[in-house]
Design goal:
Blueprint (H helix, E strand, L loop, with lengths): L33 H24 L9 H27 L4 H5 L6 H24 L10 H4 L5 H50 L10 H22 L3 H19 L1
Helix pairs in contact: 1-2, 2-6, 4-7, 4-8, 6-7, 6-8, 7-8
Amino acid sequence: MPEDRSEPVWPGQPPAGPEPTAGGARVPARAAWWGLAGAAVGLVLATLLQGIGLAATGQRSVTPSNTALLTVLGEVGLWAAMLGTAVFVSRRYGSRSLQRDFGLGIRPADIGWGALAMVGGFVASSVVVAAFAHTRFAGSNSQIVTGQKGHELGLVVVGLVVAVGAPFFEELFFRGFLRTAFEARLGGHGAVWAQAGFFALAHLGEAGGWGNVSVVSALFLLGVVLGYTAKLTGRLGAGMVAHGMFNLVAVVTTVL
């Protein structure tokens, strides 16, 4: 009787298959509805954690001294919901592997692809900013950074939040989970543009009044670039690099 040389499959281990890609047929379109639940949970968690932060500092409102702390707490609430949504959808509809279902992974080549995507995103968003310059629609979402001028530790903390944390969790949620779910109904190109719209709307309110028009429009184009980056590379790594570099450049140029 020939010897069985096949690899054992442990309980809970995803079955052997092709190289993980950012988007597959395993996750159905209806899974996208869980994104709304995840967003709602994230807002609740962010509000609760920020309330705890205010209580811990003995302050009743946002001040330059507690902005960094409240930013971290709020983002942790949102990130927990984003990660939880992706994990839940992967376990309910997919292979239980974030790599296989959503392309979570990075390779050395993604650094180069990420740099290229960052340039594309920067050019696209700059066109929007220039188009709305000197109009009532011009705005900025850099207040989170400018509020830390003179507070070195706070600036470092905020810089890490926007350049490391946000790119990881937002890429997993929008370019991984949401784009994959949309792809089952809208196809590859339609999914890229759809997730970019929700990515942009998620930042609505970060600029005051009509200024949201330019901010949301610029982030929509950035989301398109990052969406195609995930689609073309088959992984989220390059988009995470691009997103992180884009945010880091924004922080540096705001501070200088």
